[in-house]
Structure formats: structure tokens, C-alpha cells
Amino acid sequence: MKSGTRLSVAFWAFVALVPALAGAQHTTMLNLASLPEWQVKEGRNVSLNDVRDWGVQPLVDREYGVTKVEIRTYGRAQQTLQAMVETTPDPSSAYGLLTFYQTESMKAATGMKLAVIGPEQALMARDTFFIRIRRPAKMPEENFRSALVAIAGAAPSNTNALLPPSLPAQGVISGTHKYVLGPVAMQRAVPSVPPDLVGFRMGAELQAADYRTEGQPARLLFISYPTRSIARAQFAALQKRLGVNQKNGAGAIFGKVEASYVLLVENAQSEQVASRLMGRLNIKEEVSWDQKPPGTPVAVQMFKLILGNIFLVLLLVGMAVLAGILLFASRRIAARWFPHSDWARGYEDSIIRLNLKEQ
């Protein structure tokens, strides 16, 4: 019985080990190493004119509202990375700088959002910051991408907040998408359309991208305006100056007005091709009566208003009490140093003389 029991135990142990032995032939190695802990070793504030060697165009960056520029040196062990951080007013401005400086030689960083990697440097938009990081010549791309994640994170904290609506991604030529907020960037990113026709002073925002349609590149321009009337007026100016929808062939421009947006297509082979490209944009306008406004909740705003009123009342009461104390103190001081003055005596013994005459 004992030998039979031992044989049974050995048999079932062998059965249990067979799958493990078979799986050992196809072992998958997992890299459990943590990301490099890059730390700031040095930081200094500079001006936009001091960083031209980074590829910065100062007039363009000022147009996007850059208020501060900082050069940072990150280090880990024997490795160092140099980064330039520009502070902008809002996430859309940082995103605009990312699109403006992105080129066709750059490609999206795998596993990251709003980040592209080029041969010499990486560009990232993180909330209100536009970041450039120089790429060391001997650092593999995988290690460089890991360093980018360790320094700036895989994605902004508010990826979609305050960013413009995206243009259709299908068929777009990499590195050609531009988000423009002013005439200087417009002249350099989209020189085919005069900036004065866009109307940036009236709150216009422009996006442009090149698409490959039927083997030929065509450029789609998407201009948003605050109101429909402004959009119609600017589209009329574009029709008059550029001849929109008035001719075919090379150099023809097709377009339309939809709600408060103007859509233009350059270099399209025909009006049908331009219409199909513009048709990729699905524009909808909705009016919501129950949508909560962004920002601080109404209850918090009312609470702050009540506290402000209470503070104002307490301030007025305090000023009245202080004025009374100062009045009393001045009477006492006048009584001591100027006992015969009217202020000290309180006009108690004063005689009022009325010069009345009979007529």
C-alpha cells in the first residue's frame, strides 16, 4: 500500500509539472526596470532672442503669447538632457506652437500624446507649457522616449481641455497640420492666403493640413469665427480677393461657409474632390439649457459672494468705529492743549449773532 501511494503521488506530480516544462520552452521575458529618474540639475531664465539656435522664431512665439522661457538641464547618473520650456497663456497656445514647429521629418512618439520626435529634438505640449528636448546623438530612440515620459509624462493632465477640434486624420500628410492664431505664423505656415483676409483681429483661429487625395496633395483650411455674420463677411472678402469657387484648374480655391466656420481647399483637382474633402468635417452646433457652465460651481460662487458682502459690512462698521474713536481722541487732545478752542469746548459758550433788519 505504501509503495502504491508513493507511485500515485509521483504520477500526479509529474502530470502537474508537464505544462510547466512545456511552457518553459516559450518563456517571455518582461522588463521590470523602472523609468529613469531624471532630475533637474540646473535651470535659468532666458529671452526668446537667446534661444534662436533651438530653432525658435521669436516673433511667432510672442504671437502665441509666450511669457517665460527657461533652459533646464536634466541629469541621471552620467547622462544629461537639455530642455527648453516655454510658458504660454493656455493649452491651445502650447498646442499651436507644437503644430507650428512640427515638420514632416518628425513622427508621433509611441505611447505618448501631443509629442513628436525628430532627428535633433522632441517637441511636446503639456498643459500651458511647450517643451523642446534635444536628442543626444548616441541615445537610442527607445531610451530617449523613456526619458521624455519620465520628464514630462506620457500625456497632459487635460488632454482635450481648451484644445481646438481636430481635423480629419484620414489621409493627412504627417507634419503638415498647423494651428495658427496670428498673422505672423500665418505668413510662414500658410503663405498662400493673405493674413488680412482671415481676420485674426476679430477672433479668428485657423487650422490647416495637407491631404493626399487621389494621389495628389490638397490643403484643407478650417477657420473658426466668433459669430456667423463675421464668417460670412470674411468669406465674401475671400471670394473677392482670391476668386473662391470662381475658377478651375491650377491654383483654384474652393470653399464654403458653414455656421460660424469657413472651409477652404487649395490645389484640389476639381470641385468634386474639394467637396469630398470638406465633407469629412462634421460640424454641429447645439444649444443646451441645462449644461453647467465651466469653472467654479454656482454654489461656491454664491458662498464667495455672501462672504464678500459680510466682509464689506464688517469693513464699513470698523471704519465707523475707528472714525468715532479718532473724533473722541481729537476732542480730548484739543481740551488739553487748546482748552479755549471751539473744538475743545464743543461750541457750548458760542454766541450766534443774527443781523436782522426791519424793512
Strand order of the largest sheet: 1-2-3-7-6-5-4
Stretches where pLDDT falls below 50 for ≥5 residues?
Answer: 1-7, 17-35
What oligomeric state do the depicted chains represent? single chain
Roughly what is the average pLDDT, rounded to an integer? 83
Beta strands, count: 12
Structural class: alpha+beta
Radius of gyration, in Å, reads 36 Å
What does the main sheet amount to?
A: 7 strands, antiparallel
SSE succession? HEHEEHEEEEHEHHEEHEEHHH
> What's the number of helices?
10
Gap between N and C termini, in Å? 152 Å
Q: Approximately how much helix is present in the residues?
A: 25-40%
What's the overall geometry? extended
Strand content: 15-25%
Describe the 3D structure.
- The protein is α+β, with helices and mostly antiparallel strands.
- 36% of the residues lie in helices and 21% in strands.
- It is built from 10 helices and 12 strands.
- It has helices spanning 2-24, 58-63, 91-101, 141-152, 183-189, 195-198, 228-242, 271-278, 298-337, 342-345, and strands at 39-46, 68-76, 79-87, 107-108, 115-117, 121-126, 129-134, 178-180, 205-213, 216-224, 253-258, 261-266.
- A 7-stranded antiparallel beta sheet has the order 1-2-3-7-6-5-4, sandwiched between helices. It has a 5-stranded antiparallel beta sheet with strand order 8-9-10-12-11, sandwiched between helices.
- A hairpin with a 2-residue loop joins strand 11 (253-258) and strand 12 (261-266).
- The termini are far apart.
